[in-house]
Write a structure and sequence with these properties.
Layout: E1 2-8, E2 14-25, E3 28-40, H1 43-52, H2 60-84, E4 92-105, E5 108-115, H3 118-125, E6 129-131, H4 135-139, H5 148-156, E7 163-168, E8 171-177, E9 184-190, H6 192-202, H7 214-217, H8 223-230, H9 250-256, H10 264-283, E10 290-294, H11 301-311, E11 315-317, H12 329-342, H13 350-353, E12 363-365, E13 383-386
Parallel strand pairs: 1-4, 3-13, 4-6, 7-10, 10-11
Antiparallel strand pairs: 1-2, 2-3, 4-5, 6-12, 7-8, 8-9
Helix pairs in contact: 1-2, 2-3, 6-10, 8-10, 10-11
Length: 391
Amino acid sequence: MIVLGLSSGTSTDGIDVAAARFALDGDLVRLAPLGHLSVAYSAELRRAIRAALPPAATTMHEVCEIDTRIGQEFAAAAQRGVRELAGERADLISSHGQTVYHWVSDATVHGTLQLGQPAWIAEATGLPVVSDLRASDVAAGGQGAPLASLLDVLLLSGRAERAAALNLGGIANVTVVRDDAPPVAFDTGPANALLDAAARRVSGGRAQRDDDGAIARSGRVDPTLLDQLLAEPYYRLPPPKTTGLELFGADYLDAALARGAPPEGDLLATLVELTAVTVADALRPYEVTEVLASGGGTRNPALMDRLAHRLHPARISAPDDLGLDSDAKEAYLFALLGFLTWHGVAGSVPACTGARRAAVAGRITPGPAPLRLPEPATTVPNRLRVDAPVR
């Protein structure tokens, strides 16, 4: 079947859409990419989302309006994906929506909230929609993250060397796949979240990010500020663990700079080093030899240079080497989750999320036609192969 995955990360840049043809072959999932596209949020909706994110106060009216408008813009993006990527032949939509809150205290996740009403997507496309993909893992005692660990474990299993997958979104997360022990996955800390907040701060809101790492490259690391940031207790929590803008948001940066900020180049260089150090420190105990990096942060040369230095002798590669486009990896992940849910297969790895059991992910919103689910799969897949697309 052909499934579209829709996602929007913590940077709230917009909507990533990926289409793929999936098949189950015993314990193997076959994924044939059909392409991907990115659709920016409207400027008005992006401002509304960012204005409602923690620690901002908001109202139920605003939550309802944002939920509806995200659903509508996801619906328009899905229509484009069905038309441009799937040749009008898609069978299912899987939508992550937009995370607006992850309720964490004392290293325990109590709840998670993704907005983007799926009924709008089902109505616009005429297809069933799988959504709310994190809540079942949380209800089973898990962190609800990183969901990317499912794709990472399937994709990296059976490799000769110990490998890790690294996603550099607003938050950085890693998955380590080992032959001699269960996999492990967790959020390491901020990737683009603080860098983007700093870019907005030094530009007076005119820039949303440090394009090509130009500002960071113009400065030097401030060791005093770096030590202050590295004192954050989150980094010393054991996995599984998860975090988000609730901790590493713009207010976190403001508090860190309350006694004075270094020059803008030094500030961005220090935040680049913070991400490089915390990722490398998180992976060091696992002695990985290869790190497959994806996400928006891979387009920041300053960050990738420092990661390469800190991760050495492990080499950095990309999911593209395995046939999966780095820019669309998360959207393909959510397409995979929707496909597995449709076949009654769990969508998380308890060893990675900390859940008591592997739960089937999400809920299904029907399209205009009655739901006709297939018989649940009798074999749980443990491998994924990326095939050449066959249209």
